Amino acid sequence: SYYLIETDLVPLLQPFQLLIPKPILTALDVPLRVVIEDAYDRAVGPGVPAPADWRPIKDLAGMAIKLLASVPVAVDNFVEDLGLS
To answer: What is the pTM for the complete model shown?
Structure first.
């Protein structure tokens, strides 16, 4: 069985919660999720070994578009956490 545990921040950012203000972390969370999601191969089932790939980004243009699309969401999250929305 697999269980999904949703978090407010990507686990990579959680150690920084004591050092960096939350609005900055939530702004970094959105583009970081885009990069992390791009690393997964959804065609391979869970539990099936997958070979390592030396290319961290498979589709550079697609990644750039997704990252640009994540910027307004990151800014919105930042403004919301500041209490300005």
So the answer is: 0.78
